[in-house]
TrEMBL record:
Pfam families hit by this protein: YchJ_M-like (PF17775)
Every YchJ-like middle NTF2-like domain range: 27-119
Name recorded for this polypeptide: YchJ-like middle NTF2-like domain-containing protein
Highest rank taxon of the organism: Bacteria
Amino acid sequence: MDCPCCANLSYSNCCHPFHLNKEKPLTPEKLMRSRFSAYALHLIDYLIETTHPSQRHLYQKKEIENSAKSNVWLKLEICEAKKDIVEFKAFYQNGLKIFIHHERSVFKQENGIWYYLKG
């Protein structure tokens, strides 16, 4: 299976090891890609675990789950990735309409682990 993050790799050689917690993403871009794949595959716990602990209170598990499951996640385009910022476009379908979520996400590394901080 191709990885949902659109890195042109198989899922098993891309985001799957992160989702199984066998590896940690070494860059904010890889974390962003793994989070997009987690939305596409409805891996809600992974999305919560990869959000910085100081920000987790802002996200309710049920809301994340509803967003992940009510949309079909079509593709991810990385516009720019540098240091701790990743600008991306996430394409998704809700009903018959296609939407683009365009965001500049900020990531924070703590104890060698990257987390999503804010968008």
